[in-house]
Amino acid sequence: MSNEPYVRTEMLSEQPAPLGETGVIRWMRENLFSSIGNSILTVLSLVVVFLMLKAFLPWAIQPSWSSGSLRQCIDDPNITGACWGVIRDRFNQLMFGFYPHDAQWRAIAAFVLMLVAIAPVLFDKLPRKLMIFSAVFPFLGVWLLWGGTIWAPLLVLAGFAIGYFVNKALTGIAGNLAGMILGVLATLIWWLYGVAPVSDILSSVAPIGIEAIESSKFGGLMLSITIGVSGIALSLPIGIVLALGRQSDMFIIKTLSVGFIEFIRGVPLITLLFVASVLLNFFLPPGTNFDLILRVIIMVTIFASAYMAETIRGGLAALPTGQFEAADALGLDYWQSMRLIIMPQALKISIPGIVGTFIGLFKDTTLVSIIGLLDPVGLVKTIQGHADWNGIVWELYIFIALMFWVFTFSMSRYSMYLENKLKTTH
Amino acid sequence: MAMADQPAGKSFRLSMLLYDTRYRSMTIQVIMLTGFVLGVWWLIGNMYSNLADLGKEPNFSFLAHPAGYDINQRLIEYTSQSTNARAWVVGLLNTLLVALLGVILATVVGVAVGVLRLSNNWIVARLMTVFIEIFRNIPVLLWILFAMAIFIEEFPKPNAFRGDNATSFMYLSDSIAFTNRGWYIPKPIFNDGSMAVVAVFFLALAGMFIFGKWAKARQEKTGDILPVFWIKLAIVIIPTMLMFAVFSFLNGNREYSVVTTAAMEGTELSTIQKPKACVVSGTAISVVLQELLRETGQKVKVNAYDTEEDARAAYLNGDCNTIGVPSNEAQSVQGVVPATFSQGNPILLEQPYLDGFNFKGGLHLRNSLIALWLALSFYTAAFIAEAVRAGIMAINKGQSEAAGALGLRQKRIMNLVILPQAMRVIVPPLISQYLNLTKNSSLAVAVGYMDVTGTLGGITLNQTGRALECILLLMITYLTISLSISMVMNIYNNSVKLKER
């Protein structure tokens, strides 16, 4: 038996992996120090991060929240850096501008209701019935922000009902197209000539309403959100029409749409804002006078609708041709096929793009400070002009940047979530 | 079919305009066009009656009137007596300058960040993500104002550079100064022979492109890969350096003399009392002479003239006490010759120097230009980085695996397989980012950079009150720039895109 080779009879128990191949060390070796170049990069990055934090944190972390003026900060021996008191002192202004104090609940309510109104559009798990609220919100929001009699927004809303009934009543007599045109005409006539007198009569009979606030009082983040949201909401229908126009076979309609889109996309927003501030009134009948914020909203809408049209065109282009052909094969006419087949799909595809357009527009609302509106950036000068805060710079810029960053970053995350969701369904 | 049992032209009824698909689109278009024309007519009619009420019928004659204001950064000659049209051109050039600088820096930073974001180094990838999310989610206007505030608040005043216990120093052997009034950098002075050097440089560039094409064609044909980068570098550098050396030698042979009335015969430069030089502005002799005099440690005063004759006449007139003339003419000019110097290289650098409370000489890059440039570049770079990343990620993983299976090395996989395909995805968003950068440069008005929005759409508009004309011209200007950029880039895009047959 002695010349029989040694054979192990029992299995070796499982050994743990070598120390260098597990856990943190392995992770670090793979992700931080995989090669000499990588190691240098890692060390460099750490040094950069360290230097930046070393410069920023001691400056930023200061017990200065309660200071009432820059002088207090400078005189206080405990404060050697940032004077955050300005944020506490001017928070209200940075949020609402000069909107009256006792009416600020209205702005907050409008904002919260806006979130409710947008929710069903953004998340399709929510009940579809909420869409009714989304449709009503524009009127409610405008009423809450600007105030005045409740009759005006209600009567404007009634214009849609009038258009609908006129269309219904006349389609039978005059045919489809004529019915539609007459319906639109009836609504327009009601808005132009009916709303104002009827609203005056109704408010003298039943004066229901809240205090009216003129738009020159609007400011701060609230102004940015107002301009951004109304710009995007108003530009959506115009954008859809322009996108369809650009896709159309009709030469004149296509040319007009392309011309409009390319013109608007070719000029910077600031020139359009100059138009709003100095030129727009020239193009309207003598004597008309809108306030500046309304003019800015008009120009921002025009600007956004060109970008929106391109976004939606992308959605339309992404649809397989089969969808258009199938809609035709079912015998649907143009508007029916668009409404029932094409648009629901195209819009769904374009939601990430629409969110992207909105992020861009929201950032661009800071440009209104150049024509003198008091959005957060415009307020910086106002605050610096006050004796208490003369000479403050970084704290304000950092706070405003953070404010915008929170909004745009969360929106871009939403857009990414959506892209992922859309990707899995295909 | 419907067409067959309804022959056209037979019994045309008016209602067919609405209900017959053959005519309906025509009807709709005619209605639309009429509506459009009426709308435009209405707007223009309103405009005319409004402007007539103000007594300001549209009129472009203000363009030929003197502008009456100064522009602090001008790439072409401009004074406050120049016309408004010239102010427009100066502004336009400033717009194009910042746009060009911005596009270059944004592309470099954007590509680097985009590639590094895909790095397998965890911390670098995370840092790049942070960079992108910070820069693209904060409005560009805030970045511009922020950058401007940094330059004004955090950089030293010019007088911090003064004296023996100066708190700030110039960099790169006293040639660059970062102050709160802007950056002062050396300015190239074009001497005799510079034209030849520049011409050779451009010829060499052309040669580099031709070589690149040839090398690519050769590679497609034979599979051989040349060390293209090094050869290209050599093609550009060697002839240019040779030309530079030749003219350096030739210029070195031409001797100049410092002639002065403020020193004794046979003395050194340093004995000149209160040197005050008469020079021809922007010439190499002037630069070298000033540097010689300044090296003695004295305060040098300089009178600049347009021509050699003027400078000499001023010297003879006693306006200054020192002048530089060719050595063979030195005898004919009154005064002593404490030193001689040579003319120097074909292209030489004029260093900025501290004079009194501010820097003089060299090239002054204003805060507004730098702030605008950096802010626009980094903001746009964040978007470009995303486009680059998306482009690289869009390439199927199988492509790099297949290339690896063929035995290509990592660098070649990137250069030969991934990048050529990724470029097709990257270029279209890149074009739109370049356009955005150019349009965003109009935010220059926020920091007082005199671009076309600042001149034509700013001061000219306010001074003449011609809002309609100015804004119209401004829009046309931007539209032209945008359309040209997209045209050029589309040509490029067509050249790289997949050729489908």
Structure write-up:
The complex is a heterodimer of chains A (426) and B (501). With 426 residues, chain A is mainly α. Chain A has a domain at 90-99 and 215-425: Orthogonal Bundle (MetI-like fold). Helix content of chain A is 72%, strand content 1%. Chain A contains 16 helices and two strands. Chain A has helices spanning 23-31, 36-60, 70-75, 85-96, 104-122, 130-146, 151-174, 176-205, 220-247, 251-266, 269-279, 292-318, 321-329, 334-364, 376-385, 394-425; strands at 148-149, 209-210. Chain A has a two-stranded antiparallel ribbon with strand order 1-2. In chain A, helix 13 packs antiparallel against helix 14 and helix 14 packs antiparallel against helix 16 (394-425). The mean pLDDT of chain A is 87. Chain B is α+β, with helices and mostly antiparallel strands and 501 residues long. Chain B folds into four domains: 17-53; 84-159 and 365-496, MetI-like (MetI-like fold, Orthogonal Bundle), CATH 1.10.3720; 190-251; 254-350, D-Maltodextrin-Binding Protein, domain 2 (3-Layer(aba) Sandwich). In chain B, 57% of the residues lie in helices and 10% in strands. Chain B is built from 14 helices and twelve strands. Chain B has helices spanning 16-19, 21-54, 84-117, 122-136, 140-154, 194-222, 228-252, 284-295, 308-317, 367-393, 397-405, 410-440, 452-464, 467-496; strands spanning 177-179, 182-185, 187-190, 255-260, 276-280, 301-305, 322-326, 336-342, 347-350, 353-355, 358-360, 363-365. Chain B has a five-stranded mixed beta sheet with strand order 6-5-7-4-8, with helices on both faces. The two termini of chain B are 35 Å apart. The chains are: A mainly alpha (426), B alpha+beta (501).
